[in-house]
Amino acid sequence: xxxxxxxxxxxxxxxxxxxxxxxxxxxxxxxxxxxxxxxxxxxxxxxxxxxxxxxxxxxxxxxxxxxxxxxxxxxxxxxxxxxxxxxxxxxxxxxxxxxxxxxxxxxxxxxxxxxxxxxxxxxxxxxxxxxxxxxxxxxxxxxxxxxxxxxxxxxxxxxxxxxxxxxxxxxxxxxxxxxxxxxxxxxxxxxxxxxxxxxxxxxxxxxxxx
Length: 210
Hints:
The chain is α/β, with parallel strands linked by helices. The chain folds into two domains: 2-122, Resolvase, N-terminal catalytic domain (Rossmann fold), CATH 3.40.50.1390; 158-209. Helices cover 53% and strands 13% of the residues. The chain is built from nine helices and five strands. The protein has helices spanning 18-31, 53-63, 75-78, 82-95, 111-144, 158-166, 171-178, 182-192, 204-209, and strands at residues 2-9, 35-43, 69-72, 98-101, 106-107. A five-stranded mixed beta sheet has the order 2-1-3-4-5, sandwiched between helices. Helix 4 crosses helix 5. The longest helix is centred in the middle third of the chain and has 34 residues, at 111-144.
């Protein structure tokens, strides 16, 4: 049985020492007769960061099935959120890799550990559902009060648009100048003065303002 050890401290010094985590995890692996494949250490890396060099390497090696179990000192040393934890545990489960948290005494290779994983997953899903329901309710309430939802529509000053078009600006240049989409410029010109889209723009102002 090969185990990967993951340790992390947010700051170097100031009473934080990853050796405390490593010592407990090494003793745990030795007590179970496991061989330590590698120790992945993120020193001075915040747990809130999406990218952690050592953790990223651990996940890459896990996908190559280079070890059979992952040992961490505590959940918060490994995961930045409940969602991150559940997603990682689910991936380990599909890869056939056990996950052990020393302080929480969770071992997904045991029936109790698997039950705890199921409970954690259910809680995470419940949190996501609650957030989703709140968003939907909030949108419905705002709509009922007459609020306009979605991205506000861009507005064009047609007089300015025509004036700039007369100066020879292309549709793309007009969009850039007026800070709107090319599609909106083209649609507006097509509706108000379609002849302005012709190769010959002579007299299109007169047609547009009629």
